[in-house]
Here is the input.
Amino acid sequence: MYETNYHRASSVADAAATFAKGSESKFLAGGQTLLPVMKQRLASPSDVVDLSKLQELIGIDVSGDTVTIKAATAHYDVSQSDAVRKAIPALAHLASMIGDPAVRYRGTIGGSLANNDPAADYPAAVLALGATVKTNKRSISADDFFKGLFTTALEDGEIITAVSFPVPAKAGYAKMRHPASRFALTGVFVAQTKSGDIRVAATGASQSGVMRVPAIEQALKANWSAGALDNVTISASGLLADIHGTADYRANLVKVMGQRAVAGAG
Here is the structure.
């Protein structure tokens, strides 16, 4: 690792101010991405600003038809939250499938979204549920937040403080896990809003990161059932192809994981 200055922030405002003073600053949440890339010398921040101990960024609140998860809340805490399990069971299920126990104890929802790995789980839930990402400066709708591989609408120095999820009528998530990393070779989150709209998002499949899946949305709007997807064809155009699977393989996984997600949602 290169030499860096470590700062433990005392508040979100302090973190933003400290970040601005560095020439090449990075925020540290769970450290599940930043620390490995620093060890591999792929990143060399002048300053690392630690957000992980800020109590104002930790916690879960369920109020009315909204589940709000603060940004430094660990995956494990989301997966074990009785409030989340009751309001949005699919979200708790998704959190329980992230990485391994060590990753779930350290990784955070805010860190995952800020990094926007193309195979991360949370982006699929945020996009499918039409969540709102809140920062120290503004609120950003899910449809406006994700901009491509490892790219979001966040400005330099902007800090995610919480994510608010509307409680759906039904929701489900299923993924094909990479056997080593547990990242999603392809994962699909399906949601039926209380107003009857259908939103479906896939992660691990597209060259552009998390994506909506209109073909599945249209089929489920006509008939909410796994069988409704039997005749759906997902185009392989623009999908990832690597040593783990071809674009055609991932196109098929989008359909199959979509069917499993619907079956799990009820």
Q: What stands out?
A: The mean pLDDT is 96. Residues 144 and 153 are 7 Å apart (CA to CA).
